[in-house]
């Protein structure tokens, strides 16, 4: 059965995808938060909208500039979930830079509570969830909402659970199938979202707006039949371990498995094949859906 967007969702879609060019890593974060927002009851959506109405002009400007929106663009929840990246150059938030990921030992086969207790993604999620509940300052509540939305996206990107020595795949050079991504992390952030047809077209001829609309519609439809209740019955450590399992697979092309060790790959470029792109694009789509469902469940309970 075809999923038909209501009028309000169509309006949201136009707002979300009004800008034709920006990094698709941003798009992934926006999709997670827009889809999670779609799942929420209207009273919870209104609470989010009320919080976002308190954004300072400076933060509105940061978000819109980062997303290449017009200055007067109304910031949606989807937009706000890129805020944690938009503030990376702001020294006041330097302490949060390591909260986007978790560095593990190459012998690690399981993320546990002892793996990291602070300043990493698995500590960031419960911290900002608690802040969303307990904070009394309006700015702290709003920041907790925006951080939390971003963290759910990050922990579901497999290479955010990875190794310090190669910067989470940023040192793993590749020959991309599509796009201009030069390393494995970048490919997962951006180019893996593209259709394979993009490899046969120039950027000038690629219809970004149509592509983004198609991805949103596709994931919205998949969400209707997704195992949402099963996905909700999990926690932060489960999500991290899902990512760890994905990166340790031989087909992922990130590790050379030697017993329990996930050894660094050699320095030769990895060629991204059609089979790799198709297989892992489907997994990336599922990770976006899982993040959306789990974020929606958290917000439904805490707001």
Automatic annotation (TrEMBL):
Matching Pfam families: S1-P1_nuclease
Keyword Hydrolase set for record: yes
InterPro entries xrefs: PLipase_C/P1_nuclease_dom_sf, S1/P1nuclease
Highest taxon of source: Bacteria
CDD domains: S1-P1_nuclease (cd11010)
Keywords from the UniProt entry: Disulfide bond, Endonuclease, Glycoprotein, Hydrolase, Metal-binding, Nuclease
UniProt entry tagged with the keyword Nuclease: yes
UniProt-recorded name of the protein: S1/P1 nuclease
Organism: Thalassotalea castellviae
